[in-house]
Amino acid sequence: MNLLPFFCAGWLFLVGCYALATSRNLIHAVGALAVCQSSTYVLLLAVGYRSGGTAPVFSDVPPGARPVVDPVVQALTLTDVVVGATVTALLLALVVQIAKRHGTVDPDELRELRG
Question: Which of 23, 26, 53, 60 lies at a 20 to 30 A Cα distance from 72?
Answer without folding.
Answer: 60
